[in-house]
Write a structure and sequence with these properties.
globular, about 50% helix, Rossmann fold, 8 helices, about 15% strand, alpha/beta
């Protein structure tokens, strides 16, 4: 019996992780989007709700039961301790959700898209890492275009993200997404060698 494999798709903001994930979905693979599911779990998980309410008060959730994004953003903005506290609450629940998703999948190879692979501890859960890269100027242009933000804000975000994969003990493979190099042949080559 073939062992199920889990591969992470990671890379800094604007690198093109979502493009790689979209191509994989088109090819029929399942991809777990950590950002999307973390948002879902912040609204649906009783564990997260209980711990965030205990930490920040009942107003951290709106009357309709969803996370109060403006309040949470104001609490964690420029407050690394508060951000770490939120991450310590959310990451374990997301990891548990990933394990359940992976175990219930019929596919022999599943993908997890995350920008914070090492920070979340997810690097210990995967069999391989695909690191999506692009030149800084390309990344800046992409983020400025999609988020209608300034160059300085994008650079600040790029500089705040850890990109070191030195703590990753599994194979790390690179996908170049520089608007010139075709992505599909790189993905096909990586899949055939995984």
């Amino acid at each position: 019996m073939t062992q199920k494999k889990m591969i992470s798709i990671t890379g800094g903001i604007g690198s093109g992780k979502s493009v790689v994930a979209r191509v994989l979905r088109e090819m029929g693979y399942q991809v777990y989007d950590c950002d999307m599911h973390a948002k879902r779990l912040m609204n649906s998980s009783h564990i997260i709700r209980q711990q965030l309410t205990s930490l920040f008060g009942k107003d951290i959730y709106t009357p309709d039961g969803t996370i109060n994004k403006p309040l949470l953003s104001s609490i964690i903005f420029n407050n690394p301790d508060a951000l770490d506290a939120v991450n310590c609450i959310v990451h374990p629940v997301v990891k548990y959700d990933i394990i359940n998703w992976h175990n219930s999948s019929d596919s022999t190879c599943n993908f997890v898209e995350t920008a914070i692979l090492v920070e979340s501890g997810m690097h210990t859960m995967v069999d391989e890492v695909w690191n999506v890269t692009a030149p800084v100027e390309t990344r800046i242009a992409r983020v400025m275009s999609r988020n209608a933000t300034t160059r300085d804000k994008v650079l600040e975000r790029i500089n705040s993200q850890s990109t070191s994969l030195s703590d990753v003990a599994v194979p790390v493979k690179t996908i170049i997404n520089d608007n010139d190099t075709a992505i599909l042949p790189q993905i096909i080559a990586l899949i055939s060698n995984s």
